[in-house]
Amino acid sequence: QVQLQESGPGLVKPSQTLSLTCTVSGGSISSGGYYWSWIRQHPGKGLEWIGYIYYSGSTYYNPSLKSRVTISVDTSKNQFSLKLSSVTAADTAVYYCARGRTGLNWFDPWGQGTLVTVSS
Amino acid sequence: SYVLTQPPSVSVAPGQTARITCGGNNIGSKSVHWYQQKPGQAPVLVVYDDSDRPSGIPERFSGSNSGNTATLTISRVEAGDEADYYCQVWDSSSDHLFGGGTKLTVL
Fold this sequence. Notes:
The complex is a heterodimer.
Chain A: E1 3-7, E2 11-12, E3 18-25, E4 34-41, E5 47-53, E6 59-61, E7 69-74, E8 79-84, E9 93-101, E10 107-110, E11 114-118
Parallel strand pairs in A: 2-11
Antiparallel strand pairs in A: 1-3, 3-8, 4-5, 4-9, 5-6, 7-8, 9-10, 9-11
Chain B: E1 9-12, E2 18-23, E3 33-37, E4 44-47, E5 61-66, E6 69-74, E7 83-91, E8 95-98, E9 102-106
Parallel strand pairs in B: 1-9
Antiparallel strand pairs in B: 2-6, 3-4, 3-7, 5-6, 7-8, 7-9
């Protein structure tokens, strides 16, 4: 079964760029019919969709974050990545990667999540 | 933009039925998905497309969706069902959208 695992720095300084990678195992990221997403959860709060990418490279971003977000895919490594620029304390959150199903729009499975703290 | 509204909390005694609602304008015309999130863990899909269950999810979990309200129903509630529950839809104006979450407390 497909599993996802996030990795990246747990601490980022304000104004810098947050970078995370999600490694997919148990299946190919190039499989048709799926897209690969980033979702975050502020401490004690609800879930916020950040964006997603197809293996072809097509991307879709949350309009509220679009100006700062870049999602990319590396099919050779079976990974996809998130970059969020100009971060502030408001970007402190647990970041999850998840798989979505084209046309069905639910997320399953999810990675375990990684906490990123923005602080100097 | 589209908004999903969930009650902050629902409490139920063990063995009883819990109903968690998700309100939205004409949500009955959309497909609603539900996630369970236990403390310190990632969300898990428990119901998709209003009322379908992924493999491995107990039959005690069911869903419905009509008009302006979608409902996740948990029958014969167990202590292990205590968690936060989130509804989620896809909307053409908002793309993926989550409700604010409901904390289920088993008394």
